[in-house]
Amino acid sequence: MSSSWLSLFLWSLLVVGPLIYVAIITIANFRKFRRRAKYVNMLPAGQPWNGWFSWFFGLELPGPKEEGLKLMRDRAIRVKEGLATIWFGPLNPSVSLFHSDSIKTILKTSEPKPRGIGGYFMLVPWLGDGLLLTRGPKWARNRRLLTPAFHFDILRPYMQVYNRSVDIFVSKLQGFAERGEFFETTTHASLLTLDVILRCAFSYDNDCQLRGKTHPYVTAVDSLGHAATYRLLHPYLYPDIVFNLSSRGREFKRNCQYVHQVSEEIIDKRKKTLLEEGEKIISQKGRYLDFLDILLTAKDDDGQGLTDQEIRDEVDTFLFAGHDTTASGISWAMYSLASHPEHQTRCQQEIDEILSGRDSQDIEWDDLPQLKYLTMCLKESLRLHTPVPLIERETTKDMTIEGYFIPSGTLIDVHLFILHHNPQVWDSPEEYRPDRFNDENKKDMVHFAFVPFSAGPRNCIGQHFALHEMKTAIAKILSRFTLSPDPEREVKHELTVVMKTENGMYMKATPRVCSSAH
Questions:
Q1: What span, in angstroms and rounded, lies between the C-alpha atoms of 386 and 332?
Q2: pLDDT of 358-369, one tens digit each?
Q3: For the whole model, what pTM was predicted?
């Protein structure tokens, strides 16, 4: 009899124990949720966004396109405090920031990226635990190990790669010019920047600019970005089991497998080379130290290096961040200059003066600081068409932003695009005015008003790499061609993980008769 009672008791524990554990966790999380909800609901209301989000189906029309961005800009005008509340479904409140005064509070910290619901959870299967998404001590350790990969001594030799890759891009534009055709800018810019990141970061050359109209990696990344954004804005797709069974989820999985395969191929090829020739090849004459070299050889003070999974996560992260965001920056800069001929002409005059009398038309390292007006135009384009329009953080401790109490565990949305279009921060923000960034006006610029690469401890580690590449590409293009937009095709923003266009970006390249290249 006692044995039966003991068996019954043990079976009861097996059944009831997990239920009690789940109940305790649920109650604890609900208490945390109620605390967060209490304080974030004291913030200004997030209208009109409250009208976009239903408790279940997520973002409704007009969505993350031109019309939706306009509504967000309008909201920034109405909400004077520079922050507001928004809900991702019924249990996920977040705080949106869109003013320099509110944004600087969070960017000055090293608060982590959120990986849960409403955060970057949708990118984890793609980018893993790389520098973009990792948190805490691991982030600090990997940031320290990878920072040497972006030292100026490492970046300087990349200039030759930039020039050779842009030469291929320019030759393609020459073909379009000879045929009198308009070309879709972002498609070809994406191939250019993929070529550059493969050559610079991984010493890997597969002629991606010459292998057809596009490249399967570029197509896969574009699809992944759209799928991730769609999932974020539709809470019913948050559960993995639902998303994985959907057509978008299945396509997302296939694309993840493909980009991982590309990364593993790059890593395996370099490991084989190191095994066959020894690590001494890294210091061979004429061989610059690239990002993959540092990934494979970096060691902690205790001699511990990165694991195979950590290496692949970082390669996945930098392949994406090193080409897609830069392609967006180059494309929008070309479009801005094509749409404003007077500024394009001033850039061309500056470039002609720098290249005058040279046998080679390469942009050199020492030329970059002399491209002052082009740099102003590039920064103004980065402001108007911010390549990464939104970043997120999660508070690990209580803090105060603009006088409002923000409890720990709160999701923070930092709207860089809206900040750069906020009339409380910028005068006539919709106008293209490169002189905002001249030496005189920069003195009066508000801190954290212009942060296209984020700012603070978690800023973009590769921002100098990206800026050098963009300047080189635009300078070489403008030295050979005058750009003009297609008047029959309107260019509209589309917000994904990276700022894209809704229906493409078409323009024409007209050869310059009296350019510095002739």
A1: 9
A2: 988 999 999 999
A3: 0.88
